Structure formats: C-alpha cells, structure tokens
C-alpha cells in the first residue's frame, strides 16, 4: 500500500496526472530524486496509460511488468503480478485515504495549502522536451520551489486533471499550488521540485520522454484473463 500510494503522490507532484475526458493518452516518464545535489540513482522509469477515468501504471523500462490499475469509474483498484499470474483486489478507499494523508504532509512541507500564498514567474529560457517546445514557469511556496515546463502543442492541460486531483486530495492539500498550475496554458512535460527540510534541499525531477495520444485498449484497465484474483491481505493494507 505504501509503495502504491507513493506512486500516486509522485504523479500528482512530479508530472501529468490525468487526461481530458474522452481523450486517451500514454506517456513515459523518468523521475530522479536528489539530496543536497546528489542523485539517489539513475532514476525510476514508469509508463502511464489513461482513458477517461481509468489509469494503469507500470514502473520499470520494460512494458508488461507488475502494474497498478486504478478505476475511478468503478471505485476499484488492482495490483497485477505477471510472474505469479495473480491480481490483488485492493481497498480503493483505503488507498485514497493514504493518498490524502501523504499529500497533506507534502502540503505542510511545501506551504501550498492556501491560495494566495503561492507565486508564479515565467522562466526566460524555453526548452524542447520529448520533441515539444515548452515554456517554463517557477512556482514558489514557503520553502518549496517548483519549476514547470509546459507545451501547448498537445490538446490538453492542467484543467483536464481535476477529477484525479480531487480523488487524490491534491486539490485540498495543495490548493495554492494547484490553483497556480491551473493558470498555466499547456501540458506539463517536466517538473522539478525543491523542498528545504531541516536545512537540507530535497529535489525531485520528473521528465516525460514520450507521449502518444489515441485510444487505449480496454483490456489494459481490467484484470488479465487467466489471472487469479485474490483479496488484499490485512498486513498489506497498513
């Protein structure tokens, strides 16, 4: 449960979180964390599929590995283990509550829970990310600094993220930051967050490396055929 809720929080804070209603999207991203300027490793690669109110997340460079499926349309969540050919039916409400708790803690650290307490300024140097021209913005809130690069070349933006942001708790816990993000025109392809905790700078950089628009197979968001569906163990829920 902790790993999966952490992945959801990462999607909210470090990159795209949803797609527009009736518009499907697939993207790949790499997330690198650093402490005091020293990267913790080469970064974590993930693939995300969205189709309306359905999401599939796979962590790792190879497609077809362990996956997490979230169905906002049915209120269900699944963890897929291809090696064991099992699907664990998760407690979606418990997962949502954990996401709210984690984002509340993030909001306390970032000072982003109140509108009007956050400021945004344009960055001078444009960039090209995943083949798309992007403009950069710096959002400051308390001890946190968030650099965001967005592109207007894709037909979606932060306003399309509303439902997921509300489900995860970001709209409440990070209200000020989310309000500033909603003012930006375009789809975020890179975010870099820097938070100072006890005098030490913690940084997370998320970069989208590939984006594909178009219909996604419905089977991606269902337990695979032939897999055994099991209930989540009580110790996994804690």
Q: How would you summarize this macromolecular structure in one to three sentences?
A:
This protein has 238 residues and is of the alpha+beta class. It has six helices and 14 strands.
Write the layout of secondary structure elements.
Elements: H1 2-14, E1 24-35, E2 38-39, E3 44-51, E4 54-59, E5 67-71, E6 76-81, E7 86-90, H2 92-110, E8 119-122, E9 127-129, E10 132-141, E11 144-151, H3 162-168, H4 170-173, H5 175-183, E12 187-197, E13 200-213, E14 228-231, H6 234-237
Parallel strand pairs: 7-14
Antiparallel strand pairs: 1-2, 1-3, 1-13, 3-4, 4-5, 5-6, 6-7, 8-10, 9-10, 10-11, 11-12, 12-13
The largest sheet, given as strand count, sense and whether it forms a barrel, is: 14 strands, mixed
Percentage of residues in helical conformation: 10-25%
Note the gap between the termini: 7 Å
CATH topology: outer membrane lipoprotein receptor (LolB), chain A
The residue-averaged pLDDT reads 80
**CATH architecture grouping:** Clam
- The H/E string reads HEEEEEEEHEEEEHHHEEEH
Overall morphology: globular
Assign the CATH class: Mainly Beta
- The radius of gyration is 17 Å
